[in-house]
């Protein structure tokens, strides 16, 4: 049951009692019985929101996100069956106290109230924005990615490396492919700059000795090897730094954006630029609420699809830092603080011509399930960050974000040790997206976090070599091969989840909310209906305690059977606990 609400006061009867909603000047107070609360978007510090105050704000934070998030949602629900969504793109604040939830929202914000089970509330919330978009089947195979593949030779070399080490993969992501000025032209391409209009692939000449001598042929080779190609994107008309080489096409694109009013504007009508101290400072950003912006932006990228590119890694989007901005839609900066990131990925979703293409995005907002896939952003290679990544995935799931992944073993800092990398790989094997990725050699921000390693690649073979553990590569390969074995199950569950608007991985509380033991468990999860996964998240541990909720369970490894609502001890030299739900013990 859903109810739209804007009145001053309301007593709302819901599944678990009465919510007494009282409107204040710029907030509401909700007195209701509850023991746990979930939602709020992708949260790195907690899954159960009770006792926490959350800012619903799209924010970029390099590693150790804590209370910040790239992908929030002004939505929550309680164990007692009450749910709420605030329909605003502005920054909001939710405080979950004892018997009361305090919500700071702009005056006049429309609320949608829900009553029911977690399953019905999440599904009804998602339906406000439309049905979930199901990624193509190939997206569920393992992904490979690292920033330093900056030439065609390095990219094609990965085909050989996968064969040499006998690792399966279905997707390769290239970040360092473009000129880093336009973000749509291959680095080293020769062409006649255009003040307006778009390029066809044949407008470019590629030197045999250049970084990318034949991108179209490279894509054909990747496809022949079973690898789909995803290219990195950033939503900026970039301001080149003092140390960067001038780029005529960049200058022409920036001038055209100003002349035609394609970028977000300040209240005085001049183009808004990202403030100093932030990523891409000084750059203008496209206004995707303007149809002309979308037409101009995407016709420049159409040739990439024409030569076989399979999708985009839509990074960034957390670029609205001021309230006094103007958008073509009539919105201002205050109500686009959060909504801009989702408008960015929605525009790319609209551009992609078929269900066989994908997005892989870091920032988002309410309705993210219509523009999949989400990844957890930047984390260091530590066990603490692995625990945060898992919490992020489970809280995202409880916020209607179905298709999610993270960088195996972390993205930044020193290379992960073999133990961490194995535990992260095992966790990722059972997540919707299984991907390894790494920052540029030497570190993304060398002045903050230098890595010292000449080769920063987080590939299984590089980590295994650096670890000195003779068994590590074989154990990693086991989980990659297991991923292939699980693909029929994963794809079937993905299709079911998209059809029914429900999460694909989820904390135990989602299906066992009546069991208070599950409310605080943020280190176990279900993959679909049948598999319970309990990652090992402590360094050097060879086992852990696992809570099995009601039902009958069988160890994935030994076949041993257990009856639920019990804590058991799992011990193994290197596997993590995985259990299959069965009909009887």
Describe the structure.
With 585 residues, this protein is of the alpha+beta class. The protein has three domains: 2-127, glycosyl hydrolase (family 31) (Immunoglobulin-like, Sandwich), CATH 2.60.40.1760; 137-191 and 198-235 and 289-315 and 335-469, TIM Barrel (Alpha-Beta Barrel), CATH 3.20.20.80; 503-582, Golgi alpha-mannosidase II (Immunoglobulin-like, Sandwich), CATH 2.60.40. Strand 23 and strand 24 (531-533) form a beta hairpin. Helix 2 runs parallel beside helix 3 (215-224), helix 9 (418-429) packs parallel to helix 12 (472-500) and helix 11 (460-467) packs antiparallel against helix 12. The radius of gyration is 24 Å and the shape is globular. The model is unreliable at 445-449 (pLDDT under 50).
How are the elements arranged and paired?
Layout: E1 2-5, E2 9-14, E3 17-23, E4 27-31, E5 37-41, E6 53-56, E7 72-78, E8 82-86, E9 92-96, E10 100-104, E11 111-115, H1 118-127, E12 143-146, H2 152-165, E13 171-174, H3 215-224, E14 228-233, H4 248-260, E15 265-266, H5 291-299, H6 302-306, E16 311-314, E17 325-326, H7 339-351, E18 358-361, E19 374-375, H8 383-397, E20 404-405, H9 418-429, E21 435-436, H10 446-449, H11 460-467, H12 472-500, E22 505-506, H13 508-511, E23 525-527, E24 531-533, E25 543-548, E26 552-555, E27 561-563, E28 566-571, E29 578-582
Parallel strand pairs: 12-13, 12-21, 13-14, 14-16, 16-18, 19-20
Antiparallel strand pairs: 1-11, 2-3, 3-4, 4-10, 5-7, 6-9, 7-8, 8-11, 9-10, 15-17, 22-23, 23-24, 24-29, 25-28, 26-27, 26-29
């Amino acid at each position: 049951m859903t109810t739209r609400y804007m009145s001053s006061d309301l007593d709302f009867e819901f599944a678990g009692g009465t919510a007494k909603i009282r409107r204040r000047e710029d907030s509401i107070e909700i007195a209701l019985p509850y023991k746990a609360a979930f939602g709020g978007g992708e949260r790195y510090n907690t899954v159960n929101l009770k006792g926490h105050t959350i800012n619903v704000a799209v924010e970029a934070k390099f590693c150790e996100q804590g209370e910040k998030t790239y992908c929030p949602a002004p939505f929550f629900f309680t164990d007692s069956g009450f749910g709420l969504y605030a329909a605003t793109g502005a920054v909001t604040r939710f405080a979950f106290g004892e018997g009361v939830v305090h919500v700071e929202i702009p005056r006049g914000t429309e609320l949608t109230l829900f009553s029911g089970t977690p399953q019905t509330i999440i599904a009804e919330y998602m339906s406000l924005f439309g049905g979930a978009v199901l990624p193509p089947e190939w997206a569920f195979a393992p992904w490979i990615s690292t920033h330093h593949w900056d030439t065609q030779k390095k990219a094609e070399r990965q085909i050989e490396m996968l064969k040499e080490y006998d690792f399966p993969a279905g997707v390769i992501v290239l970040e360092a492919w473009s000129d880093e000025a336009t973000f749509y032209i291959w680095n080293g391409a020769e062409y006649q700059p255009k003040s307006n209009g778009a390029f066809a692939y044949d407008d470019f000449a590629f030197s045999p000795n250049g970084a990318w001598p034949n991108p179209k042929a490279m894509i054909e080779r990747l496809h022949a090897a079973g690898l789909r190609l995803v290219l990195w994107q950033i939503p900026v008309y970039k301001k080149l730094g003092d140390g960067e080489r001038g780029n005529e096409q960049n200058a022409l694109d920036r001038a055209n954006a100003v002349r035609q009013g394609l970028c977000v504007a300040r209240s005085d009508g001049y183009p808004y630029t990202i403030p100093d101290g932030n990523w891409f400072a000084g750059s203008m950003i496209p206004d995707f609420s303007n149809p002309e912006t979308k037409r101009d932006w995407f016709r420049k990228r159409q040739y990439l699809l024409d030569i076989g590119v399979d999708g985009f890694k839509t990074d960034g989007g957390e670029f609205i830092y001021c309230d006094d901005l103007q958008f073509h839609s009539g919105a201002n900066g205050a109500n686009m603080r959060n909504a801009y990131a989702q408008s960015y990925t929605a525009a790319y979703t609209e551009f992609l011509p078929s269900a066989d293409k994908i997005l892989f995005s870091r920032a988002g907002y309410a309705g993210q399930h219509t523009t999949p896939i989400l990844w957890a952003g930047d984390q260091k290679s530590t066990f603490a960050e692995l625990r945060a990544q898992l919490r992020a995935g489970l809280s995202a799931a409880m916020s209607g974000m179905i298709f999610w992944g993270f960088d195996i073993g972390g993205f930044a800092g020193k290379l992960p040790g073999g133990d961490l990398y194995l535990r992260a790989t095992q966790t990722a094997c059972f997540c919707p997206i299984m991907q390894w990725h790494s920052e540029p050699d030497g570190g993304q921000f060398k002045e903050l976090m230098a890595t010292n390693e000449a080769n920063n690649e987080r590939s299984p073979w590089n980590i295994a070599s650096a670890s000195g553990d003779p068994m590590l590569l074989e154990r990693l390969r086991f989980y990659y091969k297991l991923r292939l074995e699980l693909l029929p199950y994963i794809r079937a569950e993905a299709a079911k989840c998209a059809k029914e608007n429900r999460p694909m991985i989820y904390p135990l509380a989602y299906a066992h909310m009546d069991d208070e033991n599950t409310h605080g468990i943020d280190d176990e999860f279900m993959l679909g209906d049948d598999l319970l996964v309990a990652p090992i998240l402590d360094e050097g541990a060879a086992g852990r305690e696992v809570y099995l909720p009601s039902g009958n369970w069988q160890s994935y490894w030994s076949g041993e059977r257990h009856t639920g609502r019990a804590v058991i001890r799992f011990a193994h030299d290197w596997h993590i606990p995985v259990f299959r739900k069965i009909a009887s013990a």
